[in-house]
Amino acid sequence: TIQTLSQDEHLKEFDPNAFDYILIDEVHHAGAKSYQRVMDYFKPAFFLGMTATPERNDDFSIFKLFDYQVAYEIRLQEALENDLLAPFHYVGISDYEFPKDDDQLTVDQYQDRFSDGHHHQEDQRAVELLSSSDRVAYILQQTNYYGFAGEKLHGLVFCSSVSEAEELAKEFSRQGVSAKALSGHDPVTIRQRVVMDFEQGKYNYLITVDIFNEGIDIPCVNQVVFLRSTQSAIVYVQQLGRGLRKYPGKEYVEVLDFIGNYKNSYMIPIALTGDDSYSKDQARETLDMEPTIGLSTIAFEEVARERIYATLKKTQLDRLANLRSRYLALKSQVGRIPKLMDFWRAHSVDPQVLVTASKVKSYYQFLQKMGEDVHLTDYQERVQNFLATELVNGKRCQELLLLRELLTKEEVTPVAFAELLQKEGCLWDSPTQRSVEMVLDLSFYAKKAYPSQVDYGGQPIVTTTLLGYQLNPQIRQSLKESALFRNLWEDAIEAGLARSQRYRPDQMMTVGEKYTRKDAVRLINNPLNVNAQIVSGYYFTNEESGLKEAIVFITYEKSEGIREEINYQNGFLNDRVVRYFMKQGDAKLSSKNFLRFKSGEYRLHLFMQKSAADDHLEYYYLGTCQYLDGSAELTNDGKRPHLGILLQLDQPLPYHLYHTFID
Q1: Rounded to two decimals, what is the model's pTM?
Q2: Per CATH, which fold does 514-662 belong to?
Q3: Architecture of domain 85-314
């Protein structure tokens, strides 16, 4: 073992140059003194480290140990897609519910105490409940129903504590299913013998806590059962991986996850898909779409799905503690302060999350939150805030493309820029051109209300002259004199353009993507930023703008406790027609805004969110729509009038988007 080899008397049996090539398995442990002693002693021509989990929770960098040279990297999802592992069939199942509320609360609190990965005092009452005959009967009913691949069951069960494993093994056996508990408390010789017995079919199940997280493969495992809350995505994948080794007769491994009312269940869709973006939308998409990974499948029972939804609503994925761990992991990997594009290329945290998390306004401010010694002038910080807050989201690429051109050119003529946009397939008509120019010269923003022109530096970012577009001289000077400013500026532009790939550049907005009211006001080319409260349910461009655009925002599910006068139910009649109730002040057939809907003069852009709790300030863009003639219905509930109208989308909603709301 490494512990034996690291002892001086054993090391000195070898010449330091005895080996040309040394391969270290499970190299994520190399921060330990025993590993360090061995690696410092030997002087091979080549060290190769292998690990499935290079990320560590301490400050030691495995990547630095190998001079940041990664010879090859393949993650679980890619290995599954390339048929290097046995596929899994994952089913999220609701855990057993105890009849007495006090018992359920005892179990929930117990499970949550162990969810942080640390050892806690075991609650004897909770263990009794979790290993009770009724719960075990429920577990065995489910495991029998979903089954396994192969001729004989070889199941691996993960639970929260050693005593729970022991009691579960007893109850499994009492109910006719042979099981054996195994833990780190057992001597190595005992573990080896039990594993051998398990492989030979003496036991149907091994029940453990964490000794099979890594380093031990039992290829015959064809069913993995989770009876515990999720500690972390890394640990979850390690445990899942115990069943993925290929084995004759094993077409797949059945993965059964008993999901209780514990706080960390939101990690499950993140772990299964390897999504590291810290985006709630991505996690919800996994729950809704139940994607496949190669031949592997993911499915959730409805109650289990709702439990994960509930934890997603409560948790703040983009809290700094989460982002700090991903930041430090990537910094360890690249050996420097990572850029937004490093996160993008690593399929890690979404750059948009990094520049808006915990009230930061730019990646510069995020770096300060991470404790980095970085410094900009007040003006430099303000224009970085503009770029990060307004443009990194990539929802319109035209501003970013112009800023990219101005990095290397003194000026860009309107003709040359129009030719570039045509090449890029971008929408570029007179209203869009005017809007882009007003955003970049800051005239789109108010002089006092946030975000004001002063908040973004008080001077145009880009000016338009007879020669063309020119970058603010102060910004140009900062790009020359400050390496930090230039790196942040270039990185933000590149990250924004990378994000823009998900949006259609030839249209104002992209169906199925999310936008805030503020986004929509800019993207319909309104000449002035408008406060979200003014936009409220709908907003029509005014006559002075020369535009005929309108934006309509609908919340599909009203929040509990909402004011009675606005608690009316909007909804779909089908995948193309939406019933919509006008605001209370417009609930009459003569109201100015109703007549605007009815006139057909405005291009109506329809947005919808499932609920404020799910989507916060963001709405899915459903496309353009028309008022259906004669659909207005004026009713009165005895307290106040309500005016309902029908809006018909110009194109039916895609199936998955429609079912996002109605399911």
Answers
A1: 0.83
A2: PUA domain-like (2.30.280)
A3: 3-Layer(aba) Sandwich (3.40)
